[in-house]
Amino acid sequence: MKKQPKSVTGTNLLHAKNHNRRAVLDAVRRHDGLSRADITRITNLSAQTISNLVGELEDSGLLLAGEPIRQKRGQPARPYRLNPDGGYAIGFQLTGTQFDAVLVNLLGKERARISQQFNHPNPEQAIELLIDATHRIISDCGLDPARNIGIGIAMPGPVGIAGPTGIAPGWEGFDIVAALSEKIDCPVFVENDADAAAISEKLYGNARTLENFVYVFVGYGLGAGLFMDNQIIHGTNGAAGEIGHLPVEPQGRDCPCGRKGCLERYVSLLALYDEFDAADRDALLNDTTLNRLAQLSPDDEPVKRWIKQAAPHLATAVQILGSMLDPQAVMLGGLLPEPIVKALLDELSNLEVTGSRTPLGNALPVQAGVGNLLSAAMGAAALPIYHELVPDFQNMLKIRDANA
Fold first, then answer.
1. Could you count the other beta carbons within 10 Å of the beta carbon of residue 270?
2. CATH superfamily, region 88-198+378-389
């Protein structure tokens, strides 16, 4: 679904206050145990502004005040930290055959999870299932619905498409955010699975200190979350990072997109499953719980073959990403079990081309992300938390349609 061009108008006091509020929360999130003076220094806001904001955030339950600490001079300083239970978020990992939902606290710790299988639902059916699951998971945890800061949804491929990487026919151009927001009283966010996992990696994973990185998400297909200058890059049609369809093998394997030799035909779960005999391949494909995948070992012969074939093609993609985007690191994650990720990274490090250097001559680290079988759901849950806790210059701006 093509995005409409945007133009930017000025800010106003509400937008500025929301931005400052996020700046305070982000400072405390990154530096646990800050005093008001510390927060003032880090954010460059006035002492009065910090006093007002910290008071409001403490009253709302988002910040917790510790016992005052005596100092050499002046009044004792009271340290503040983020209240893990000051709010929670729900993340959905949505495919054509199943959803997985996780509820996490503000520190990204899982409190509950539920799953449900279905058969390629139409959008209206999916909305009702998500609403029911939201009420159920909140009720099961005994939580206050008012503390729900939002729902995140991670979907395969560019959001709003059908086809091989979408959900099902009927989803083309469907605005799931608007449809769900009409029926539930909390903010709703949606990203593709790679972008959602990248945001989770930024909040809670190995990319916490990075401003520019690429998260390569290995799922049934292959995608990448491009986290550049502290924000996700979406592109004109929301398809930035669709590296699965980079051509890496001339006249190579047929791809559902209609071309040959696409990267995801060599680096993806489907490519991995193709290394197994027919019976085992079907068993892996039909296991929507991914329990069989979790039991695979890098010592299994089909897995070994896949790693040997996948590594050179992935190395090519890493070089392209390094040359085009100049990231600080490439993170490898998604649905692959951790031992297989490690084995794939070891194989990459053995390839001469991977010791690859950026055009400026710097080494480009390729490392494991904090991924698991629910990494997309955890990433989806991170979406509302990221919006609530992390300052973004764009949040200060009033965006309107170019034709307005």
1. 17
2. ATPase, nucleotide binding domain (3.30.420.40)
The secondary structure of residue 159, as a DSSP letter, is T
Spell out the residues 6+ positions from residue 292 whose beta carbon is closer than 8 angstroms to its own: 283, 284
Contacts of 400 by beta carbon, 8 Å cutoff, 6+ apart: 6, 7, 9
Residue 309: which H helix or E strand, with range? Answer: helix 301-325
Beta strands in 95-147 (DSSP E): 98-105, 110-117
Q: What is the pLDDT of residue 348?
A: 92
172: phi then psi, degrees, rounded to nearest 5: -60, 120
Question: What's 4's DSSP letter?
Answer: P
Q: Report pLDDT for 166.
A: 54
Contact of 240 with 354, CB cutoff 8 Å: no
- Report the predicted TM-score, pTM, of the whole model to 2 decimal places: 0.83
Bridge partners (DSSP) of residue 72 are none
Distance CA 93, CA 383 (A): 12
CATH number for the region 6-83 comes to 1.10.10.10
Where does the chain hold its CATH 3.30.420.40 domain(s)?
A: 88-198+378-389, 206-369
Q: What is the homologous superfamily of the domain 206-369 according to CATH? A: ATPase, nucleotide binding domain (3.30.420.40)
For the chain, give every residue range classified as CATH 1.10.10.10.
Answer: 6-83
Within 8 A by CB and 6+ apart from 327, the residues are 212, 213, 214, 228, 321, 364
Per residue in 200-242, pLDDT (tens digit) is 898 888 898 899 999 999 998 999 999 998 889 988 888 899 9
Q: Phi and psi dihedrals of 41, rounded to 5?
A: -65, -45
Query: Over 90: is that where the pLDDT of 14 sits?
Result: no
Name every residue whose Cβ is closer than 8 Å to that of residue 139 and which is 6 or more positions away in sequence: none
Binning pLDDT at 50, 70 and 90, where does residue 17 land? confident
Pairing of strands 6-8, 399-401: antiparallel
Gyration radius (Cα) of the chain, Å? 22
- Please, which pLDDT band fits residue 305 given cuts at 50, 70 and 90? very high
DSSP state of 265: G
CA atoms within 13 A on the CB side of 70: 1
Q: CB within 8 A of 44, min separation 6: which ones?
A: none
